[in-house]
Structures are given as C-alpha cells and as structure tokens.
C-alpha cells in the first residue's frame, strides 16, 4: 500500500465540510494557539487564573466553552487550559489540517466530531490516550460512547455529547388525524398513508443532504457499513449494499414516491419554515434537535407547545436497536508537548457537574457523561420545547443507554457525499433504493482502492 498516498487523501478529506449534527458554537477569539501547544498561552480567549501551573492549549466551539474552561481552571491544581475558538466544522478542520501538514501550530487538545476521528487518526495526528488515565474515567461513559471514539483497542477522544435518535412529532396534527405515535416502521408507513388519505400534511422528510441520518437508519436495520482496524491500516471492510441497507433505501424511496414524505433538504430556511408551518407531521432526528429547532425559531409563537417526542420506530420491536446521529469529543493531538497532561484536560473538561448541568439545561449538548445521564434532575426534566414532557426519561436516556456504538471510516466525507448523490437519484426516480445501494458500494469501494486500501 502507498501510505503517503493514503495520508494525502485523508488530508484532502479532512478539509471538507459536513452539516454538524451536534450543538454548534459561535463567537470566541479567532486565530491559532501557541505553536506546538504545551506551555504557550499567549493567545487565550480566557483568562488563566493560576499562572504558576503548566498550560495546555485547546480549540473548542461549544457556546458555553468559556464557562467550561473557567470551571476547569478554577477546580484544577495541576494544569490550566488556554482556550481558543478557531471556528466550527470546516473552519476548524482546515486550520487543523494546515497544522498537521506543517508539523506545527496545532493545539494540545482539539474538539472534533466523532466521525472525523479516523480521518485524523490515519494521519497520525491524534494520540491514543488509553494509557493516560482511561481506567479512572472509563465508568463515566457507556460502551457505545467509548466505541464511537475508539479505533480498534485505541482510544482517540473523550466523549462529550451525542445524538440518540427519536421521532419528534406534532401533537396537534396527530390529534387532528387520530394518529398514535408509530412503534414500528410498518406502522409509520400506515400512519403516513392514513394522514395522506385524509388530506393531511406529509408525514416526514427523506432528504438527500443528511447522509449520516440515512446511515444511522440503515445501521438500525442491521447494516455495518465499515469495518476498520488501525492494526491493519491498509485494509477496510465496506458493505454498503447488504440487504439491510437496500431495504432502508427502498423503504424511504417508496414513501417519497407515494408522496407520503417530502424530499426537501434539511437545515435550510425552507425546511424550517415547513416544520414551523406544519408541513411535516414528524421529524426523525437526534437529542440535539430540540436545541437546534429552538434556535431556528421552531416551537415559538403559534406552534408553541405543539411538539412531542416518541422513541424511534423499530424494524423489529422484539429486538429494538438504538442508533445515534452526531456527537463530539475532546482529542489529544500528536503535537501536544505533554500528552499525559493534555489527556488530563481532555478527560476533565465538561466533566464537572456545573458544566454538564449548564450544557443540558441550556440545550447546548445532550451529555454522554453518566454523571449527567444518571442525574435525577436531568432524567426528570420537563422539557419546555415538548410542552413539559419528560423527554429524557421517556425517550432519550433509554436510547442513549442502549446505543452500542459504531465504526466510522477514514474517508467518511467521501462516503457521505456519495450517499447524497445516490439518495438524490432515488428521489428523482432514476434508480431504486436497491440499485442506489449497489452504485454506492461500487463508488466508495473504487475510491478506497484508489487511495491505496485493500477492500474486503
């Protein structure tokens, strides 16, 4: 295998952008951090209170990161954090990629989305932190959360927030058409047909620009898109056209063909307008969605109190499978001057009660730390967006607890783009779901081989 070629491809992919499927941050000081991380603290957004302690630099973009960093620095007697917000998504990844290529300029700790970890790990840009205190914090997170930040036996990040999936729905529309929340995908289709026959709105949306959502629904059906182990860095398993993957694409393609669901791109003003105006009866999404929707103006004005949430419909209710969409982690970079000290920061940030509570009360994150997930205050929270429904207790906490994790690929962005292309083809009627899955397999497998992988 041409390792240089593979790493070059990974560098290109790291610079690409995706729709962030987790809480996004804004503001903060731009620019980079002290070259090489370590003790350089000349460009901090925050004020460091204990200047006699060693400093770890970090990039992060949660809206409440200032509070989180201040809490950590106030409570810690071994190290202080110098935090900078260099942007989210491609803004941050472009800067990190530049630092990787230059061999300097990266922070000690970086906040990244979990599906990006393999892309940077394959470039040797992240550190396995398992030997730096993992055992002391292992019990703070569930096995699914740890799997999402691990590659093989190595751990390349500390889980912070996630996106256990559920079905948000309009109570007023369900009541009008005498619909009860479907427990299976068969019931979902039946309810959609009933609503259409009665002259109601579209039941949901099958969008081309949410490939991570489509992938999660395929995994729920039993698909395993990728198998990858860094111990065999040149080999990857790709299975995108198994029967489960075909079934899910055919299912949603048929719903769209019958006019039971829309096909509008999500995360757009037009889509949000449709959600507000009752164009869709359901929104299949993740636990971060209430915060996102609230920020986008949903659940206010005339549609206040009209939303509720139910568990994600299942293919086989006797064997339920919970899936996840989105999530972020704190990773230690290979440019960290003191990886062990940097790991202490990664493990400790967003792990204290005050920071965790601020995150979930202000709908900034859905926490993965079990100190929050097991907190009665969090579990019993009456969520205002859902009209006081105890959404965490009834839906999101059970989904998060049952999630088993997944394996991401080192070229996830190419896969997502290829998926978008094929879902668009399903929507325009040029291919069936099964045909799209075959084309996707051919496309992504060919790309992997071009990058020097042996495809299994």
What does this protein structure show overall?
The longest helix has 18 residues, at 433-450. The chain has 2 domains: 17-162 and 326-386, Periplasmic binding protein-like II (D-Maltodextrin-Binding Protein, domain 2, 3-Layer(aba) Sandwich); 163-323 and 408-455, Periplasmic binding protein-like II (D-Maltodextrin-Binding Protein, domain 2). With 456 residues, it is α/β, with parallel strands linked by helices. The chain is built from 19 helices and 14 strands. The radius of gyration is 22 Å and the shape is globular. The model is unreliable at 1-40 (pLDDT under 50).
Secondary-structure topology with pairs:
Layout: H1 3-14, E1 55-59, H2 65-75, E2 80-84, H3 90-102, E3 109-113, H4 117-121, H5 134-137, H6 143-148, E4 150-151, E5 154-155, E6 158-170, H7 171-176, H8 185-197, E7 204-205, H9 211-221, E8 226-228, E9 235-238, H10 243-257, E10 261-262, H11 269-276, E11 282-286, H12 289-295, E12 307-311, E13 324-332, H13 339-348, H14 353-361, H15 370-373, H16 376-379, H17 391-402, H18 412-427, H19 433-450, E14 454-455
Parallel strand pairs: 1-2, 1-3, 7-10, 9-14
Antiparallel strand pairs: 3-13, 4-5, 6-11, 6-12, 6-13, 8-9
Keywords: Signal
Protein name: ABC transporter substrate-binding protein
Signal peptide: 1-20
């Amino acid at each position: 295998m041409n390792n240089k070629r593979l790493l070059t491809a990974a560098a290109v992919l790291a610079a690409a952008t995706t729709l962030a499927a987790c809480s996004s941050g804004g503001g903060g000081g731009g620019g980079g951090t002290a070259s090489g991380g370590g003790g350089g603290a000349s460009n901090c957004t925050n004020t460091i209170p204990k200047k006699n302690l060693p400093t770890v630099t970090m990039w992060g973009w949660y809206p409440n990161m200032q509070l989180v960093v201040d809490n950590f620095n106030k409570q810690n007697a071994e190290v202080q954090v110098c935090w900078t917000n260099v942007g989210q998504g491609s803004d941050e990844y472009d800067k990190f990629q530049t630092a990787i290529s230059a061999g300097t300029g990266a922070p000690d700790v970086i906040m990244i989305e979990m599906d990006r970890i393999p892309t940077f790990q394959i470039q040797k840009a992240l550190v396995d932190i398992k030997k730096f205190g993992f055992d002391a914090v292992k019990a703070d997170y569930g096995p699914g959360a740890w799997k999402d930040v691990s590659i093989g036996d190595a751990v390349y990040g500390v889980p912070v927030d996630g996106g256990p999936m559920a079905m948000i729905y309009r109570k007023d529309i369900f009541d009008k058409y005498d619909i009860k929340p479907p427990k299976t995908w068969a019931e979902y289709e039946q309810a959609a047909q009933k609503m259409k026959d009665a002259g109601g709105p579209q039941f949901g949306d099958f969008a081309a620009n949410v490939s991570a959502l489509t992938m999660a629904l395929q995994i729920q059906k039993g698909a395993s898109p990728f198998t990858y182990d860094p111990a065999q860095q040149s080999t990857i398993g790709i299975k995108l056209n198994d029967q489960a993957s075909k079934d899910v694409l055919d299912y949603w393609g048929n719903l769209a063909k019958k006019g039971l669901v829309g096909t509008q791109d999500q995360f757009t003003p037009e889509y949000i307008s449709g959600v507000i105006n009752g164009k869709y009866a359901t929104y299949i999404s993740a636990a971060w969605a209430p915060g996102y929707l609230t920020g986008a103006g949903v659940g206010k004005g005339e549609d206040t109190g009209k939303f509720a949430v139910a568990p994600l419909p299942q293919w086989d209710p006797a064997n339920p499978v919970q899936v996840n969409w989105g999530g972020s982690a704190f990773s230690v970079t290979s440019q960290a001057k003191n990886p062990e000290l940097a790991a202490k920061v990664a493990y400790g940030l967003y792990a204290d009660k005050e920071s965790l509570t601020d995150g979930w009360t202000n709908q900034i994150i859905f926490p993965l730390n079990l100190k929050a997930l097991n907190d009665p205050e969090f579990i019993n929270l009456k969520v205002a967006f859902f009209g006081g429904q105890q959404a965490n207790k009834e839906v999101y906490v059970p989904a998060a607890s049952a999630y088993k994790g997944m394996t991401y690929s080192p070229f996830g962005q190419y896969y997502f783009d290829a998926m978008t292309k094929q879902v668009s083809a399903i929507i325009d009627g040029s291919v069936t779901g099964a045909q799209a899955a075959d084309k996707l397999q051919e496309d992504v497998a060919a790309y992997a081989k071009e990058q020097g992988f042996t495809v299994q």
